[in-house]
Design brief:
mainly alpha; 2 helices; 0% strand; elongated
C-alpha cells in the first residue's frame, strides 16, 4: 500500500469514528461541534 492510501484510510476511519461518537453522545453541543468540523455536504 502506498502512503497516500494509508493516509486516506486513516482519515476515513477517523471520520467514521467521530460520526459514531456524535451519534452515541446525546449532548447536542458535542454533536453540533462534530457537524461543524465535518459537514455532511
Amino acid at each position: 500500500m502506498s502512503v497516500t492510501q494509508v493516509i486516506i484510510q486513516a482519515l476515513l476511519f477517523l471520520f467514521l469514528f467521530l460520526k459514531v461518537l456524535a451519534m452515541v453522545d446525546d449532548s447536542h453541543t458535542e454533536q453540533q461541534r462534530y457537524i461543524g468540523l465535518f459537514p455532511d455536504r
